[in-house]
Amino acid sequence: QRVEDKLFYNRYLVDSGRAHIKVRPHTTPSSRLLSMLKACPARCYELNDKGHVEVTVDGCMECGTCRVICAESGDIEWSYPRGGFGVLFKFG
Ligand code: SF4
Asked: Which of 62, 77, 80 to mutate to test the pocket of ligand 1 (most atoms within 8 A of CB)?
């Protein structure tokens, strides 16, 4: 499932214009990052053709799994959307 498929569905669940999860640039993904390919319930994490893990926050349910697994180790940067819980609010 690609970004295009996710956009419509999510547009009004989250503020999709404001990326709040970023994957730290890497040459080889850590095992933590790789685990997100399966651990993210919304399948936001994907492997690109260079073998890097990418995140697409459209579809993110704010479950916090990737934050727990990857934020402390620095594999990703996480910040909450304005308002605290993006799923519950529509911005703008
Ligand atoms: Fe996926 Fe949950 Fe992380 Fe969102 S918060 S990207 S749904 S693991």
From this structure: 62
Q: Which residue has its alpha carbon closest to ligand 1 atom 2?
A: 63
Task: Report the separation in Å between the CA atom of 68 and the middle of ligand 1, taken as the mean of its atom positions.
Answer: 10
Low-confidence ranges of the chain (pLDDT < 70): 1-19, 80-92
Complex ipTM value: 0.99
The DSSP line for 25-44 is P-SS--HHHHHHHHH-TT--
Residue 42 CB–ligand 1 contact under 6 Å: yes
Dihedral, CA atoms, 80, 84, 87, 90, nearest 10 degrees? Answer: -110
Domain boundaries, the chain: 3-78
The answer to whether residues 33 and 23 touch, using CB atoms and an 8 Å cutoff, is: yes
**CATH architecture, domain 3-78:** 2-Layer Sandwich (3.30)
